[in-house]
Amino acid sequence: MTGLVLEGGAMRGLFTAGVLDVMMQAGLRFDGMIGVSAGAAFGCNYKSGQPGRVLRYNLRFCRDPRYCSWRSWLRTGDFFGADFCYRELPEHLDPFDSAAFAADPMAFYLVCTDVDTGQACYRRCDRADAGCYQWMRASASMPLISRIVTVDGRRYLDGAIADSIPLRFFEANGFHRNVVILTQPAGYRKKPPAAMPLLKIALRRYPALLRQLACRHDHYNRAVAYAEAQAAAGRGLLIRPAGPLPVGRVSHDPVKLQQTYDAGAAEARRLLPQLRDFLAT
Fold it and tell me: Which of these, 51, 48, 56, lies nearest to 25 by C-alpha position?
């Protein structure tokens, strides 16, 4: 089976959105998709068949304090406003096509991190309902700037803490031909978290999570190396930026967001012949 594996990166996920929109418009289909953090929150639009939606609402609301702001963090505990992002926006302001999402046969998974065990939780969502939105929120809830999210009696944070690039998980579940979309360029290696002293204070009740955070950079760098090895062996195909993107995790600049999206779209157009050949093999 063929799979899509989507790294997170918050607003760097606009690169992924550009790639996915080109693939949607080219009619490329996959048996399954797994997204982490922004990879899940943006990637779900591939299953619902809504090209352009991710860019549209990010350009429209990037300067709206309800969407992402320190004001939202002070008022609600979430830098990315939970009610706004996971209810008001998909239900009213830029409707998510939940019927199309449910009707599409592609399997959709996302990744969260269990704060009590520090382990990855892989969740399949077949319907875009309130429960699914809560799982997406949990997957994208970054430490320090987000509240811990409780779903089905368990507590979760950002899936990237435990498994930033869940390629091995997808291969173990039968997806042996995978396209992996990264939001960092070749040569990037994650460093130990500079905010570890703050994390130790804020998350002191969750020692297993802190252990995972302390070694996250090692896990990430090994995951990148594995994805590169699979691509070199012909078992995978990597798509990533040609160089550093103009945005970081957060950006309120619509010009830079557009540039990030355009970089992804351009890279996907460049690789379309390879993508078609890879999926046809």
Answer: 51
